[in-house]
Each structure stands twice: as C-alpha cells, then as structure tokens.
From TrEMBL:
Residues of the N-acetyltransferase domain: 2-156
Domain of life: Bacteria
Single GO MF annotation: acyltransferase activity, transferring groups other than amino-acyl groups
Pfam family, one: Acetyltransf_10
Protein name according to UniProt: GNAT family N-acetyltransferase
Amino acid sequence: MLSFDAAVPEDESFFFELYASTRDEELASWGWGFSEKESFLNMQFEFQRRMFDTQYPDAVTRIVCADRCRVGRVVVADRPDAIYVIDLSLLPQYQNQRIGTTYLQILQSEARVCEKPIRLNVQSANRALRLYQRLGFQVIQEQGVYYRMEWSPLSL
C-alpha cells in the first residue's frame, strides 16, 4: 500500500540518503574516495535544498511510503498557472515498481479537476523520461541537458 505523508524535519537524513542514491551511478565513474564523495554530496544536497526553498517557497514535500517503509519523496508546488513537480525521487530498489506511475496518475487526476497542466524538468538521459512520455508528458523546451515537460488535461 502506498501513502504520501507530510515530511517533517526528522526526515532530513532520509532525504540526504535518497539524494545520494540518485547520484551513485554518476559518482562511481569519478574515481573519488568516500570522503570526497560525502563532501561533494553534502554540498550538492544543501545547494538543492536552498534552490528549492528559494524558487519554490510554496512547495509541499511528501514522503513516499510503500507498506509503511520510506521509499522516496515528492516535492510539488501548486501554483495558479500549473502544478510543478520539483522532485520525484525513489530509492533504487523501489524504482520500476509503478510507484512513480501511481503518484503521477493521482496528480493527473487532481490536475484534471482544477484544469491545470503539470510541469517538470528531467535530464535527457534520465530513465524517468520514458515514464513521463508514457503518461502523456510532452517536451516543451530543451535547456542544455534538461527537458522541460508538460502534461495538459486539455490535450486529452
């Protein structure tokens, strides 16, 4: 059973673990030692947190739980023009189990009711790109190695 629970300050260490897991593959190829990786990850994690707080002060962070076990997080900002998925991250062992699909389908149902598009950014090499395309998201802008994508309830 999936749940999406409000995040609390005590979740911060889990968020760091989750963030680090999303960078494992990339950092493995750099040949760094543990302390170098840890320092880099702490710096990048803090940068991401500050960027989210600055650009999306209205965002809501939820813990993704599967059978009462923390497996990921979602950060979403519901603004007048659109619903923004700022982050959707799952621990590697919980990816490809329809958790992201389920969450996005719930969000699409909510977006239909309020007649708002859903927008997100994804790296062009990220495996999640296929998920977003399968759910009807379209690339609306290319920004370097990132795609800005949008799903619109009006285009269905």
